[in-house]
Fold these 3 entries.
Entry 1:
Amino acid sequence: MPVIGFLSVFSPPCATSTIPIVFIGVGDPVGIGLVASLARPGGNITGFTNITTEVTPKRLELLTELVPQATVIALLVNPDNEITEYYIKIMQEAAHTKGVQLPVLKAGTEGEIDTAFASLGQLQAGGLVVAADAFFYSRRDQLAALASRYSVPATYEDRAFTAAGGLMSYGSDVLALFRQAGIYAGRILKGERPADLPVQQPTTFQFVVNLKTANALGISVPAAILARADEVIE
């Protein structure tokens, strides 16, 4: 029976050159050497990128719209992530465009996350952007709890953070990516090669606002933001 491996941003990479692999939610598959190019991935791997790095400036934009008085918005990154430096670069450019300061906080362990949040007061940060990262996804309950404890408006990459009590999230629709990956798996099982199936970018994005969290933070969410939200958690 044919075998297909699935690789997601939330699972460790698999070392194989024979089993067809369909990846899901990888931010920069070319940059990390997963595929040769989006149009011609080559090898035994193809899949769906979440372009999360590219959409993060949009998350900063939404946060500045929600808390326009904030002049300092911190960025939390994982220093162990291969694309962190590139991530910081594009976010600094976005912050400059918005006229806000962007101190960078780094955390690769649970304890370092605690330390990062404890420093927000000294930085006088009026908001926080949490970078897209598998480690942060695994610690979403901790992140949401700390944002509540320190009363900091924070934005995240995925609805799972908002469902855990986070304020707002904006990113690709993960369920849609899994459905598309299933279609690719079917095509491979019928004989097509991963090398011939181009890596695709998401076309559907989700903007989720947790109104209960906003109320707890004393934030009045503008009607314009609520109207654009795909989901409002109350």
Entry 2:
Amino acid sequence: MSRPKITVVGGGNVGATCAHWAAARELGDVVLVDIVEGMPQGKALDLMQARPIFGFNVEVIGANDYAAAKDSQVVIITAGIPRKPGMSREDLINTNKNIVSTVTKEIMAQAPEAFLIVVANPLDAMCYVAKKVSGLPRERVMGMAGILDTARYRCFIAMELGVAVEEIQAMVLGGHGDDMVPVVSATNISGVPLTDLLPPERINALVERTRKGGGEIVALLKTGSAYYAPAAAAVQMAEAILKDQRRLAPVSAYLAGEYGLNDLYFGVPVILGGGGVEKILTLELTGEEEAMLEKSAAAVAKTRDDLKM
């Protein structure tokens, strides 16, 4: 019986770290594709040499063309130029639209049955590009954002309260940008509402830090953006699909009327399993949260319109 195949497109920090997490978790054989000659091959060989140390038995292959991606079950698209300090997400849009379009066409030629997990920014817009170019149903094209944003939110709460991260149930919805919506009304620590444990001003500070979580790391690194947590989030999505885990997780999904939104990729809670985005769930939100979600949707819709697709 052959193992599942996961292809990661883009061998930079996020892509290479996706390959690392996926191989270490033995989700399947991993293919790392990048246009830079030798780079994906070198990273793949390096990862192969880690196998005897940590005892994972999957193949890791580096390639400069897409033939190696043939018949992949899951493809994680990290290719695109990264956001640099002072650069808005919208500055990225046209360059990354062209890159994601090209990648999607190449992948469809080799792996027409694949599920696509988009990580390239601006995230919600690039999901839209991948769906339009691939022609795939919405169940099979999704974006990694909500899991990362929620992980940051949970991390900051854990740091604030001095509790284990596993105890914190939380959800961040909306576009992957400064208007994202950490849902405070749905946040609890093993059933105890966050609002019982922290005063409003501390909660507001954590919400604000979550929204600026990516920018905080960009400012610290000075020469790039986050990659450990983004890669972990993408790989968790791949694992949910490959193992049919039916996880309830926030994912950038294509909406057709849900939350009053149409023809838009947007961060919402979904059931993620062997069928991909199997169900989109509608949360009960407070009036304030609904207003914030509307503001976030307007920003995402503007970026979608800028694509002119």
Entry 3:
Amino acid sequence: MQYKVTVVGAGNVGATTAQRIAEAELADVVMVDVLADLATGKALDMMEAAPVLGFNAKISGGGDYAPTAGSDVCVVTSGLARKPGMSRDDLLAKNTDIIREVTTQLVKYSPDTIIIMVTNPLDAMCEVARRVSGFPRERIIGMAGVLDAARMRWFIADALKISVQDIDAFVLGGHGDTMVPLPRYATVNGIPLPQLLAADKIEAINARTRSGGAEIVNYYKQGSAYYAPSAAVLDMVAAILHDKKKILPCAVYLNGEYGLKDLFVGVPALLGRKGMEKVIELDLSADEKAQLQKSADAVHELVTALPKF
């Protein structure tokens, strides 16, 4: 393959992400986990599927970061997953130390890579990676809005009983309970959503979108979502490696856009071979601006709680 992607974490999210990237033949994949045998075994299992599915990308796995050298993109999924009753914020202290060590290793072997953060609490973990790596904001991106918008799009499709391919939607803000669905910008084959659904049904979709992750956690009992998150990562990796210049909602480090500064917040961003190449500023109503500010304030509280390093 022309490209190499590292996936840190061989749990459900990481392994499914590695599988999707390889099966799409986007890149060769190196999967790293503190449980080296787990990563090795899952990589071997995936490669034994290659003759059946017909993909030629290579997947390797282990506990050593040396094979990750020269990765074009590094996807970070390592960390503790949520349990029922646990918020993303509860994971802050436990996952900060993990992300510090992971980022140190990735930068050592791939100093020019682009990091896609998946570990929760996502916006704060992006900040940890930024501080440790010293990377410019273009090369640290959080996978949040793509997933949240995908959930919203499915809920809309299910409510209207139409194809998901007809639906576009944006979700802004932090990846948590304060995220900001934007039904005003949601369209169904170009038709604004408010013309097709009553306000109360739209608000129900907004509420379900905000709690989409928790809904899955409650069903699983142990662990959290991984099919949709891995698909969202695939979309981002493809946009970067293929230089698609695709506009996707992602957590990016804002520098005054939307009136926010020095904070990772979910907004529409143009993704290409350089990573996050442009922030797209939407014209928000006063209420939408207030919701986004509230979400940003929640992210700021998490970042403030991070240990100094």
